Amino acid sequence: MIRIMIADDQPIVRRGLHTVLEAEKDFQIVGEASNAPEAVQLAASLRPDVVLMDIRMPPADSINAVREIREQGWGKVIMLTTFDTEENVVRALKAGASGFLLKDVEISELANAIRQVMNGQFAIQPELVATYLPALMGASHEDILTAREREILQLVAVGRTNAQIGDVLFVSESTIKNHLTNIFAKLKVHNRTEAIDKARQLHLLE
């Protein structure tokens, strides 16, 4: 069962998403938030598998919320919005979002995107890739991993175990395992040794 949290400032959007997604046998809606700070608090409490988040929820946009949720390992994030500017797409992905979709997406495509993200893949609406590919390709290698993921990989590289890394960063061992799963998926590797080698090739380690 994939546990999903919805973050959108419009109640009608939250209700609509809740209804259509819960019709999927492998989805469970575990919470709803109406703004970015509330989304961070709920993600910390509920630890959903996937957060569907609008990029603009007054009083602020959601980029910092995405970054905090990802760096703390509180769930993967898919942006679901009407604001498809190049800046929004690139900023969201750099902050750690695993997907970027528009609200006119078909329900079947949204459901498939959620499953893709759960399998460690990225889910970006095809027309957005076609439009913004040059900007996405221009992102530096450092943008592949969040600051917290690079910090964890640095500790892995010096031989720390998951438990030791958790002690250093004041988080649980399971949180470290979640981060490593995300790191492996982003670097397209299968284990710690391969991750360290790939990170060195990309100059992600100090």
Automatic annotation (TrEMBL):
GO terms for molecular function: DNA binding. It holds the Pfam family Response_reg. Residues 3-118 form the Response regulatory domain. GO terms for biological process: phosphorelay signal transduction system; regulation of DNA-templated transcription. The modification 4-aspartylphosphate is found at residue 54. The keyword Transmembrane helix does not apply. Keywords: DNA-binding, Phosphoprotein, Transcription, Transcription regulation. Residues 138-203 form the HTH luxR-type domain. Transmembrane segments: none annotated. May play the central regulatory role in sporulation. It may be an element of the effector pathway responsible for the activation of sporulation genes in response to nutritional stress. Spo0A may act in concert with spo0H (a sigma factor) to control the expression of some genes that are critical to the sporulation process. This is Stage 0 sporulation protein A homolog. The lineage of its organism: Bacteria, Bacillati, Bacillota, Clostridia, Eubacteriales.
